[in-house]
Structures are given as C-alpha cells and as structure tokens.
DNA sequence: TATTGTTATACTCTATAACTATA
DNA sequence: TATAGTTATAGAGTATAACAATA
C-alpha cells in the first residue's frame, strides 16, 4: 500500500463527506465549511478568529471571509476582546445556536451513515491514525530537523 | 469517539495534505488538484473526462475546468474517441509526462512524511477504513433503501 | 431517451501582500 | 518587533442549468 494510495483514499473520503454535508446544509443556505465553523463555536467557549482558524484548519483570511458571510446571515457575532484589543471573540448568536441545532439534527443520518460500516474500535483507530497523519504533516517538520 | 470527531479529523488531515501538496506543486505553477489529475492520467491508459472525474472525485464541469487549464499549459491533450464520438480521451502530453515525473520526484519527501509515523500494516488499515468510509457515503445510499 | 461534453454563470474558499492597531 | 485582524485582489474549484451532438 503506497503513500499515494493513502493520499487518494483520503481525498476521496473527504470529498464524499464534504458533498454529502453540503447537500444537507444547503437546506439552510449555508455551506459545509460554514457548518464546521458553527460546530466549532457551538462547543462552548468563545474563540478568537485565530484560534478558530487553528481548530478548523483554515487561515485567518479564510476565516474572516467565512465569518463575514455568517455575520451577514446573523449566525455569529464578533465582539472586541477586552484583554487583548487586537483580537475579537467570535460567538454564535441566539439564531446561530438555533440554526446549528436544527442542522445538527438534520445531519444526524449522515453521521450515522459515516460510521455505519465501522465497528466502534475501528472508528477510534481511524481517528487516531488520521490525527497522527495530521501531526506528521505539520509545516514545522519540513526543514532539516536537527534537535540536540 | 463520535462521528463528528471522525469528520473533523478527516477534514484536518485532508487539508493539511492539500496544503503541503500545493506548496510542492507551486514550483511548477500547478495546484494540488491539478497534480491529482496528472497522477490519474499517468497510470497508463487514457480515460474519458467522465471516467477521470469518477477517479478523482470531481464532477464533469470541474474536470473540464481543470483540463482546460492543463491543456493551456500543454500538459494534457484531448482527442475524440472514435468508438463513442460524444466522448473525448484525455492523455498526458510528452511535456505533461515529463513535468509529472519531476513533480513526483519533488513530492517524494512529502509522501515519506505522510507514512513516516505509520507502520506498514497501519497504512493498509487506514486505506481500507477510508475506502469503506467512501463507500458508505456513496450518494445512492441516501433514499430509503428498499430492494426486493 | 439518456449520456458526454460544452457554455454561461455564480459563489465560496483560498491565499498573498500591504496595511492598521495593539501588544 | 511581533501579533490580530482588515483590506484589496486574484484564482481555483465547485456547482447548476440549458444546450448540442451522439448514442
């Protein structure tokens, strides 16, 4: 099994999931990526835009573009962070929370489908392997690694 | 381990790989997705645009857009398929093959990095799990499945 | 009738670079 | 000096819909 086959299977799995997610989220006029933002914000605490970007794997410019769209729709709000006035805390609005709950419910079948062919330990294994993959690919690795 | 955590780890792994691939391919002025097209075409036989789309997980309009860009660069050529004159066979040009070989070589380190933290059986397991994931998400599953 | 590919069009995500303001 | 976010800009990938040619 080659690294290239791994790359391709990763691509095909991600794109399939992304399309199916898009199809569900389109009901509310948002995209799969925007749903990822809502989901990240729904997990309790508020985040700065940078922190949000780190969580969802998008850079600050991309994050801003998505937030502007979501703000326009009334799903998120950004308030100045008192402690560090360069930063802005991002949070779901009441409407954002409500919309997210609805979309979460409507995507329930999809999440079930996703793990339907996997035993519980297989899901755990898969997540673990994917995370170690992501760690291997962190940009800081690239330069000739020499640590004493 | 929840389905949502699986979805997120899949997203983060794919995006990390995509970015790293983009960085390598930028040397030749192409994108990670265009490299995927070249790789698919390099595997020997020529494909129709539809077949190509199926392999790389993109729809026919997207495929066309990418092929137009690659054709403009002189990396691929499309010739009428005699047997079915609606279709067009896509193939790498000489320059396309040469460029692909160079890029393949330059992305060697990246592929090594990708599997560096994985034992060989783990890579095989991962590919197998990802494929079964993709299969679970095939769009035909969605409607209330009732087959006699 | 169904399929392959094209045309026209639009939108989101993505990224770079230069900038402001805060730290 | 470095960081958080913005502005301006551009490009790629994506998708939908209507269409032509062919099967």
Total of helices of chain A = 7
CATH superfamily of chain A: Winged helix-like DNA-binding domain superfamily/Winged helix DNA-binding domain
* Biggest interchain interface, per-side counts: A-B, 52 and 52 residues
Structural class of chain A: mainly alpha
Q: What overall form of chain A do the CA principal axes indicate?
A: globular
CATH class of chain A: Mainly Alpha
- Which value, in Å, is the CA radius of gyration of chain A? 18 Å
Low-confidence stretches of chain A: 142-148
CATH topology of chain A: Arc Repressor Mutant, subunit A
How many domain modules of chain A? 1
β-strand amount of chain A: 5-15%
Structural overview:
Two copies of one chain form a homodimer. In chain A, a hairpin with a 7-residue loop joins strand 2 (76-80) and strand 3. Chain A is built from seven helices and three strands, in the order ααβααββααα. In chain A, helix 2 (32-42) crosses helix 5 (94-106) and helix 3 packs across helix 4 (60-72). In chain A, strands 1-3-2 form a three-stranded antiparallel sheet. Chain A has a single domain (15-130), classed as Arc Repressor Mutant, subunit A. In chain A, 64% of the residues lie in helices and 8% in strands. Chain A starts with a helix and ends in a 12-residue tail after the last helix. The model of chain A is unreliable at 142-148 (pLDDT under 50). Chain A is mainly alpha-helical and 148 residues long. Chains A and B meet through helix 1, helix 6 and helix 7 of A and helix 1, helix 6 and helix 7 of B.
């Amino acid at each position: 099994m080659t690294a290239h086959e791994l790359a391709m299977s990763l691509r095909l799995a991600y794109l399939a999931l992304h399309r199916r997610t898009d199809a569900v989220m389109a009901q509310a006029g948002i995209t799969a990526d925007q749903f990822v933002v809502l989901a990240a914000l729904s997990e309790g605490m508020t985040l700065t835009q940078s922190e949000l970007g780190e969580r969802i794997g998008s850079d600050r410019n991309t994050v801003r573009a998505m937030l502007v769209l979501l703000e326009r729709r009334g799903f998120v709000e950004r308030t100045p962070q008192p402690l560090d006035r360069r930063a802005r805390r991002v949070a779901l609005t009441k409407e954002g929370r409500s919309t997210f709950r609805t979309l979460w419910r409507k995507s329930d079948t999809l999440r079930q489908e996703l793990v339907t062919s996997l035993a519980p330990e297989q899901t755990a294994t898969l997540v673990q392997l994917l995370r170690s993959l992501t760690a291997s690919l962190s940009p800081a690795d690239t330069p000739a690694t020499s640590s004493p």
